[in-house]
């Protein structure tokens, strides 16, 4: 299941999300920076970080290890 983490440059919350992903030993994921992409900025704006799975489900911040594990199933 491909995972994508939508984030911004210089985003403290994004850094925290990366720490949660590491703590949960989440599978590999792609980091997509929304800065400069009008469509992604319109969709995610200040909601980042947002983790999306291959089925299109999204887990928005804030999330912890337990919530991430439930999301990943």
Can you offer a commentary on this structure?
The protein has three helices and four strands. With 73 residues, the chain is an alpha+beta fold. The protein has a single domain (3-72), classed as Glutaredoxin, CATH 3.40.30. Helix 1 links the parallel strand 1 (3-7) and strand 2 (29-33). The model has no long low-confidence stretch (mean pLDDT 96).
Number of strands: 4
The structural class is: alpha+beta
User: Could you give the order of strands across the largest sheet?
Assistant: 2-1-3-4
* CATH homolog superfamily: Glutaredoxin
Count of all domains: 1
H-E order: EHEHEEH
| Major beta-sheet overview | 4 strands, mixed
Query: How is the CATH topology named?
Result: Glutaredoxin
Tally of separate helices: 3
* CATH architectural category: 3-Layer(aba) Sandwich
Radius of gyration: 11 Å
Strand content: 15-25%
InterPro entries: Glutaredoxin-like, Thioredoxin-like_sf
Protein name: Glutaredoxin family protein
Offer a few descriptive terms:
Thioredoxin-like_sf; Glutaredoxin; Glutaredoxin-like; 22% strand; Glutaredoxin family protein; 37% helix
